[in-house]
Amino acid sequence: MYDIIGDIHGYAKSLESLLTKLGYKKDNNFYTHPERKVIFVGDFIDRGPLVFETLEIVKAMINGGAALAIMGNHEYNAICYHSKSNDGKNWLRARSQKNVNQHVATLEAFNDSPKEWLEYLEWFKSLPLYLDMGDFRVVHACWDDEVIKYLNSRLLNGIMDDDFLHQSAKSGTIEFKAIETCLKGHELFLPIGMTYVDRDGASRNKIRAKWWKPLNSETYRSISLNNDENLPEIKVPVKQLQKLNSYSFNNVPVFIGHYWNSGIPSIMSPNVCCVDYSVAKNEKLVAYRWNNEKHLSDANFIIQECTEINVRY
Ligand SMILES: [Mn+2]
Asked: In the beta sheet, which residues pair with residue 286?
């Protein structure tokens, strides 16, 4: 059986506390459990104070057979940040101030260990974009049947190859859209000219959508993942909603991270569970303890309050 653990973002002490709470013990240099395995939903790096240590713990568990992992958008971004385009002229991810800032905690963590960093970059490339375990699924941000069908036909075991990586770094390609969907989820634009101010004070013209919702009538507020009171109660055009594909109630459970949830962990729907509760904002690192149930339950969250205090994110 599996324990699905959310975005860690360099909070290695919180991770060790959570693993201990879950009954994993360090044996032969990695955390292991006699009956269970961990699945990590990606986003190991950036933001937090112990990126190096986080990667050591996660990779050792995977090598030891105690865990599986998928790729998060931060690992994908890191690969692109450090890869040149085929003509050698540009980085696949621009080194803008914003992109540098997002990655700086990792760059600093590996300042004195360039060789190890290159090894981790290669390891990131070996992480699948999603896992279909039969009885359940795991993806960093969004399970879209059509996108997964495409990736199944394009990739071996959901792992990017070099050609896919380079195509995916070009805005507008089918590979780019597949990465956006799996690793960042679906976004919906507000009606033209409309913006809203989010909880962090930023003005936005699009929202992160609850992509699992059936395609009924939804307003921008009801379909938004942010539950933001500033969002308009205006109906979303059906055409836009159809972009989401939805996630049928008959499908097996899917576990995701990515969304910076806050407050008391709860499932998104009976078969959709997000395990990101913002440890990188000094909130919680969360696991869902899955025992084969088809209908997920709030009672199965295992919660670790952030162990590191007063650190930057
Ligand atoms: Mn993420």
From this structure: 303
Q: Residue 106 Cα, ligand 1 centroid: separation in angstroms?
A: 15
Cα 6 to middle of ligand 1, angstroms: 10
Residue 67 CA: distances (Å) to CA of 62, 94, 95, 171, 240: 5, 32, 33, 33, 38
| Residue 160 CA to ligand 1 centre (angstroms) | 18
Which of 3.50.20.20, 3.60.21.10, 3.40.50.2300, 3.90.1300.10 is the CATH number of 2-185+249-305? 3.60.21.10
Sorted by where each begins, the domain ranges of the chain are 2-185+249-305, 187-243
Structure tokens at 222: 């009801």
pLDDT tens track for 176-210:
999 999 999 999 999 999 998 877 788 889 999 99
Distance 5 CA to ligand 1 centre (A): 13
Q: How far is the CA of 87 from the centre of ligand 1 (A)?
A: 29
* Gap from CA of 258 to ligand 1 centroid (Å): 4
DSSP three-state, residue 204: strand
Instruction: Read off the pTM.
Output: 0.95
Is the pLDDT at 313 greater than 60, yes or no? no
